[in-house]
What does this fold into?
Amino acid sequence: MISPIHIITLTLGTAFFIGLLKKLNLNISALLMLVAIAAAGTISASWFTAILSGAANAEVFTAGFNPPYSINLLMGKGEALITLLINLAGFLGGVYLLKSLKERGIYTMIIYLVFIMSLNVIVMTRDIFNLFVFMEVASIGIAGLVILDKSSKATQAGFKYLIATGVIAGILLIGIAFTYYFAGTLNIDVIQQASIINFKAGSIAVFLVIISIILELKPFPANGWGIDVYEGANPGIGAMISAASASAMLFVLYKLAVLVPESFLQIITAIGILTFVGSNLMGIKQSNANRLLGYSSIGQIGLLTAIVGLKPFLGAQFELIAVSILISHFFAKAGLFWLSGIVKKQNLKDWAMLRQKPYLLVLFGIFIFALIGFPPFPSFLGKWELIMKLAHSHHFYILAFILIGSFLEGIYLFRWLGFSIKMEDANLPPLTVHWNKIIPVVLSALGVLGSGIYFGTITEIAASLKYIPLLFIALLYVIDFLPVYVKNTVSIAGIGYYLYTIYPDLEGFKLIFGLIFLAGGMLTLVAGYFKTGTRKGFYPLVMLMFAGLVGLIEAHTTFEFFFAWELMTAGSYFLIIRGKKSMTHALSYMLFSLAGAYLILAGFGLAHIGQSSYALDILASVQSFAPLVFILLAIGFMTKTASVGLHIWLPGAHAEAETDVSPMVSAILLKAGVFGLILLMLNMGSQFIGSFNIYYALAWIGAITAVMGNMMAAFQEDAKRLLAYSSVGFLGYILFGLSFMSHLGWLAAVSLSVVHFMFKTLLFLAIGGIVYRVKTKEMYKMGGLIKKMPFTFISVLMGIIVIAGVPPLTGFGGKWILYNAVLEKGWFFPSALVFFAGIVAFLYCFRLIHTVFLGQLKDEHREVKEAPFWLLLPQYMILMVIMLFSALPNSLLKPIGAMLAPIFPEGALEWQGQLAKSGFGYWNGQVIMYIVGGIFVVVFAWLWYMNRNAQKVKQFNIGYSAERPSLPETTHFAYNFFAPYKKALGFLVSPLITNFWDSASEGVHAISDKVRRIYNGNVQTYAFHILAFIVVVYLIIF
Amino acid sequence: MEYISMITGFLLVLLGLWGVLTQKNIIKIIIGFSIFDTGLHIVLVSIAYLRGGTAPVIDKAVKVTEAIEKVVDPVPHALVLTAIVIGLGVTALMLVYALKLYQNKKTLEVQSFNDLKW
It folds into this structure.
């Protein structure tokens, strides 16, 4: 094993060597520089693997004396890892900067080498004065590298950086001097034994040391200088500061944290959290890419600072939490800074340029998701463990602030990602990518992915995760160049095979929802055959969503559930953003999902208090805050069911989605929320706050959602929006049914879930087919399509009969059961609303059939053809199932009833053949089917008979107020169809909730803008911030 | 009298900080920083002070056994040398920056360099 001292000798030696041989070829010098850093990295790596496999830590003594009489270096597990990261960043950063380093000559390379070397020493040294020296060397190195960029901005930023770090170093020097004065040594381990914190002067000395280290980590609000340098410097340097330099300083904080008492650790935590939240808040208003990365960097480092402060509470998981979050930050931030150097445009909207090279977009997405903490990236595990441990140790405020900070970070990162995927890019210059700039980015992405999978394998809780679906998704990426029909077949076969393998294990709710998710998935995928070409990137994303959905079904632990939930969210986000005008809708979907996911995470965290297992049934035995756990989880799930207040993402997201994506995200995805609610209610049962039944509130929410969703649907001009709002309303019924906690209520809710899946798929595919043909979604621009698209007409007709809940189709059965449940339960006020909602549903149902299919055909639609076969096929498959369930209602309801019987033994329906009896009446679906069928046949036969007398007329052969209309529009009234109702009831659907969220968003942006004004750009203000920060923290502590 | 050098050092530190915070000319700010740095060095040296102490050289005048009471602590002296060298480096780099800033905008007024903010 090579001694760690050679990390220093190699880098420093090479620096001297290339300095001495100034005449050396630049390429050779650059090569030597990279080789030296790579060698240093190899030494770190060899120590890291050796120590992991049980070797002892290495200590290096210098100057022939033992410590404390000389400086000593330590190479332990932490040191090895951090120096490995530093040298890795140094190497990749060196490759990235190759061109500018060569342009600026040998001296720059020397500075670069010395900078990397100094970071290594900072990490390894056990001597605080040595630490000071090399921190100064690193500062000088950064300032030296920054100034090589000739721009005025870089110079200004570097000057501020130099002054700020100079002042901080001065404070550190005073602290070191007095620490030495009191402890008589500079060696960290000996200082620790000297316990100088037991008297005030000694603890002030230690305070000055620690606060300087914290200041080097750029705590909010004393960090204007740091943000400016991120913005002003070359992104290549920014990457080094954010990844390498910050990692080193964090490790120093961790190393020195042993010197301070616990009360001081709390202050460190508070500073970290404040930085995390404050920095991310200010990021929201930012439009400059590098500065935004600066805010995000500082925020992440703040979170890690807090984690160092929380170490005593994190126990054995500390290493996992800290390292996983650090590594995600390290790779993602370095990668993003490097990408920024490739894009060269500072305005976030200009990142649409990335689309010119789709693989850059993929890399960008990987970094964003890694930063936010989605699976399978390491930060996902880290955040999970952190939240669990915080809940366990009752750090509820910290938990809440961490989730708020993460959410704020999500706002700007996902907006940025949305810009890059969807923003107009017509006027942007072409993107040129050099090999040396892209290789580091690719390697970072592989690094963050690989480390995520590695962490998954070494962590106990993640060991049970199934990676097979993810491998399948990877396979789909590999075959992405193949035509649609191949990939579609592979995808359907994949889902089918998976369903086949898990089918024997499914039972009860898992079976029902498993079938909705997987069989439903296959069915909607069938529609995909109508697309031609390759449909790049579509199939992996679809499969990602389905992998998440099936993961929910298969989850046994809260962790697996959350993992699956996040996969599903990621997949569906990308599916939604594929729509033409979906940028803002996808963002709002993501933000609601993210907030929902954090509520779920917090709920699981609280549920886990006092329990050792993570099994899902711990929800049944929640020890403390049970009502709060219930509310957090319920709201989390309701973001997916789009209950009133949380629904505003849905209409746009579903309406703007592609033809065959709409049914996936509407008919299938929403059921994930329903499944979550069922799981929650099954496990937690009735919940009361005082004597108030939370389920009563849920019933009201369900009822209001139903009315409001249906009313909004009735007033839409856009056919797909109409369907989207109708989903909102229908999910309201389902929530309403679930809230009853009775046999009939749940029977209604579960059967309506199945029914909703069927008719919503049917309608979205049918309407999608029409939109595909007539190229508009506005219903008033359609009309008279019945003759052009008769098959689609039948689909829509059947679909609306189901929604409206009129006999003979299945919707009626659901409604009948729901009404019986109401009679039994007696919650009449919300029930009245639900009845009213049912009537409103007739309005939009009628509008859909009337304005689209009846009336006069528009001139431009004379050549319209029937919808593509592949869109019709799944519709008719569903229609067959609907007819089966309608004619034989017990084929659907009896199994569900049997499944509910053990949970709600009382109030079950009694079945006699197809006759269902409740306590209030009976219903025979089969007989009704016969009767309606009979009436239909009679009327149809009569019409057919009468048809002999009919006279064929041309379209305009009509009398119309003594005039002959010239345009079909004038005879087909469809725009603002329900104007009178809108006049009467429109106030009920005024966009109060949208306005509420809009003003909430505006408020956050305004606060963000106000707060960031503290950074006025003046170096003296920044220096003052630093001193004031020290004084304030001093006053808090002493 | 024992603490006079330490007090002087701290006064210089404060004086230097005052200069850094209030001067409008970048050269003056750098001079302020230099004074701040010098103050630090004096504080560092004053820590080693021992009343009636002598140079840390063990010879006829100071026996090994009584060295601990008689000689001043040599470590801070060693440290201050390093600190002075670093201070020199930092100050030099600051002056380079001042030069570059002047070349950019033909002024040394610190308010003119607030382009990066918010």
